Amino acid sequence: MVMTRRIHFDLDVLRSFALGVELGSFAKAADRLGRSTSAVSAQLKKLEEQAGSPLLRRQGRGMALTDAGETMLGYARRLLELNDEATAAIHGAELEGWIRLGLQEDFGESLLPDVLGRFARAHPKVRIEARIARNVELLDRVTTGRLDLALAWDAGVATPHVERIGETPMCWIGAADGELGWSRDSGEPLPLVSLDAPCLMRTAATASLDRAGVPWRIAFTSASLAGIWAAVAAGLGVALRTRVGLPGVVRVLDGGEVGLPVMPVLGLSLHRAEAEPAPAVARLESILRQRLEVIPLRD
């Protein structure tokens, strides 16, 4: 009977691979991990030798995943999450207390269940109060000590302890089915769907349309994103949001094709109530950051 040699993937190698893919650069991954670029390259070579197949291929000036690479990335993320969860459960089992977390509604479905689930399994003695709210409320609650940690879009308003952790383009969003039903040559104002004022993206949309000389009208307002998606899907107008958390009933419009201005990126920041957060808050922040690394903020 011939015994097949078992392959044991090195978690450090998998972490370098996963982080390089997520950051879009293995040089950035090396810097983040405190390693040299050559050391990370050697790790990738070792991983491909173990896999017995190329995991990356050249695409223009960058690299893209092969089919084997896509498969490896999925397993790498699962293995790393389980490893980190086990580490946290063993070393942080005695964490206790109460954490108040605030999030934008965009991240409610795409981020919150996984983050809270992972944290609760590792730290069952810590209670979490999560609040979904708009930017203004989140920043006010962090500043006044009613939230320990908040993930919010950059709105030009700083809190005492804030760190920019990413950015994503703002996009015009239309119904997934059917045509937009509006063109710049029609002479009709663009129907806009937005959250109730004050709204960061509503302001950005109207300001950019004014600069571009595109007439507009507010066709529908809602207090929640669910209402926005329903109105856009029904063809009542277009909205300005990001790619984060888009449901299948809407799609990103090609702004240049339909005559809408190209929008800039929108920053994403973590706000803390304290400069040195409590251990439980610091651990939740770590899990939040890890989860954000795998959310597609760009194309």
TrEMBL record:
The keyword Nucleus does not apply. Keywords: DNA-binding, Transcription, Transcription regulation. Residues 9-66 form the HTH lysR-type domain. The keyword Transcription regulation applies. It comes from the Bacteria. Pfam families: HTH_1, LysR_substrate. Belongs to the LysR transcriptional regulatory family. PANTHER family: HTH-TYPE TRANSCRIPTIONAL REGULATOR LRHA-RELATED, TRANSCRIPTIONAL REGULATOR. This is LysR family transcriptional regulator. It comes from Dyella koreensis.
